[in-house]
Each structure stands twice: as C-alpha cells, then as structure tokens.
Amino acid sequence: MRTILAALALFGTVAADDKKPSKPERFTYRVTGLFAPDREKVLRDAFAELTDFKLIAIDFDEAEVTIEFDPAKLFPGQKPERVVELVSDKVRTATNHTFAVKPRRTVPRDKLERVTIPAAGCDCKACNLAAYEAVANVEGVYQATASFKDGRVTALFDPTKTDRAKLEEALRKKGVDLGKPKP
Residue 162 is part of which domain span? Predict the structure, then answer.
C-alpha cells in the first residue's frame, strides 16, 4: 500500500510539474516574401494580427525575422522542426500566402554568392513577387530581392547548389524579360 501511495505522490508531483506555466521564447527564422524594403510594413501589419506572436525584429539584409511566442502553449507536444512549419502556416494565412518562415540558413554568409540580374518589365508588386518567388524557390537560394523600378533581381545563393544560369532560367519561365538594368 505504501508503494502505491508513494507512486501516486510521485506521479502527482510529476503531473504538477507538467502544468507549470511555460514562458515565451524568442526564435529567429528566415522569412520568405520580403523582396523589397517596403514589404517590412506589410509583415509588421500581419504580425499585429497574430496576437499569439510578438514581433521583435525584422532584418531585411539577412531576410530574417525574430519573434517571441510560447511554443508549449501554442503547439503542445510538437517537435521543434514541426513548430517551424506550424508558425509558417500561421504567417502564410495571415499574409494571404505572401510570407512564410523557414529555419535559418546553416551556410555561412562568406560561402554564399550574390548575383544581380537585370530585369525589365512591369512595375507592379505582383510582378515583383512573381520574379522574387521564381528566384527564391530555386534550391540553394537563401535571400532574394526584386525591383522592376530599379530593373533588377538579386539573389544570395549557395554556389554548390545553383548558379546564375539556373536563376535566369527560372525568371524566363515566369516571363521576366532579362533586359538591361535601368540607369
């Protein structure tokens, strides 16, 4: 009987520990959809609607976002890699699928290459987003920007996984005119 009572007492302690309130934690993720500096405001507005998340910082140069939330409360029992997917789903929903989050890059910045590709054509945000997505979705691209106003698309990529020719081909498939950059 004592053994059963001791086990119940121990179980009660463990159960009580499991119910400790968890605390919000900070996470930094790569953010996709941040193809121009003016998109930061759109991202901030979206996070204002995501009341379970607190936006701490946006780093346009690194294409990263730092947010604070309580993963144990929002996604109980989920593995860390699944939490990234679930956070991304919430961000995509709040932004009509124009932003998402991914794990941070693991390749050091000094091992990446930057390329600027001349792009002529329209000047609407939808075209910028399409050009951005064409390049950003190529395997090995960690950051991209698109500006038809400036007449260019830029990409920061891992040269062991892709190259300029693959990026240009992705843009051509989206109908982007790879003309001369604007002066």
Answer: 109-173
